[in-house]
Design brief:
Layout lengths: L5 E8 L5 H16 L3 E4 L2 E6 L2 H12 L7 E8 H5 L10 H6 L8
Antiparallel strand pairs: 1-3, 1-4, 2-3
């Protein structure tokens, strides 16, 4: 079976007005990092997945972590589609440069 490297983008907008909302945000963010996501830009995180099947399993795990309020979106793209992304202003973060197509980055 041929594996196709994918990128899973997690984009979220979570409320942080009350103490309980702030706590839910911190827990969700911490769990995203535990799952291997790195920040692409504020509230947009990305993770390399070795295959579409792996991305699907990761999506299932993320669904269990989302807070009850807010907006969380996942988008799977191929490595080719991801590499076609244009950076119009600014520069790539150090984490983004380091991750490349590797699945495990130790910082």
């Amino acid at each position: 079976m041929k594996y196709k490297v994918m990128r899973l983008l997690c984009m979220f907008d979570l409320p942080v007005e009350t103490d309980s909302e702030k706590r839910a945000y911190r827990i969700f963010h911490k769990n995203l990092l535990k799952e291997g996501f790195v920040m692409l830009q504020y509230s947009v995180y990305v993770r390399v997945c070795p295959s579409r099947e792996y991305a699907g399993r990761l999506e299932t795990r993320i669904k269990k972590l989302v807070p009850l309020e807010g907006n969380v979106r996942l988008l799977s793209v191929t490595e080719k589609q991801y590499s076609d992304m244009k950076l119009l202003v600014g520069s790539r973060s150090a984490a983004e440069k380091a991750i490349g197509t590797e699945r495990l980055i130790i910082v």
